[in-house]
Amino acid sequence: KPDLVTDGVNVFSPIATANNAYDIYSGTSMSSPAAAGSFLLLQEYYSRLHGGAFMRLATLRGIAIHTAREAGSNPGPDYQFGWGLLNMEAAAAVITPNNTTHLIQENVLNNGGTFSLTVIASGNGTLKATICWTDPKGSVTPEGSALDNTSKKLVNDFDLVIKKGASTYRTWTLNGSLPANAATRGNNSSDNVEKVELPDVVPGDTYTIEITH
Fold first, then answer.
1. Which tens digits make up the pLDDT trace of 107-148?
2. Residue 212 and residue 178: Cα distance in Å, rounded?
3. Distance between CA atoms of residues 93 and 210, nearest Å
């Protein structure tokens, strides 16, 4: 945590003293409603395009993380900015009809199952794949146990990779014991969101996005 960040410093905002009154504030009182309102607008946009249906919570969260603008001193997630700065223009582009560079799927993957999707790199930017799911409640840590218990609570452990030939590209992962360290690529068995990014794909080459349970 956090998953994402939004603007929260010196935000020009309406206030309650008059219908046309504004002031400048900072803090989570600015960033939290900006994120919540943005997510609501994205759901409204999706609903208008899909006959009143809404995205699953995990889908909405996944799109926001997938399209977040990089923040921090190193690529990938970190414990200060999460996956980056919320980017609603990019998020809306993912769900816009007839786009040729984005794909959303809401699927079920049973225990031990594998999902594969073959894609061809367009050469238009980075090849990215993100998976996000709502995990059931994990085991409860007994009261009085160690502070900030680091035992894993994940129930469903999905693993996302992108493959090209004999090469396998893995998801970003962080080391909670060394929170200041930059994210590395490896097997993430702690979080219910995973993201793989390939900035150096070869246009026209075939890649396989693979998810295992």
1. 999 999 999 999 998 877 789 999 999 999 988 877 776 777
2. 28
3. 24
- DSSP secondary structure code for residue 119 in this structure: E
Helices (H) and strands (E) in the chain, counts: 3, 9
Amino acid letter, residue 197: E
> What is the value of pTM for the model shown?
0.91
- Label residues 29-47 b or e (16+ Cβ within 10 Å = b): ebbeebbeebbeebbeebe
Note whether 41 and 34 are within 8 A (CB).
Answer: no
- Where does residue 108 rank: exposed (0-12), middle (13-18), buried (19+ CB within 10 A)? exposed
Helix axes 28-49, 88-95, angle to 10 degrees: 20
Encoded tokens for 24: 């400048």
Q: Which residue has the tokens 């994940």?
A: 154
* Token pair 């609570």 in the structure block, residue: 153
Residue type, 24: I
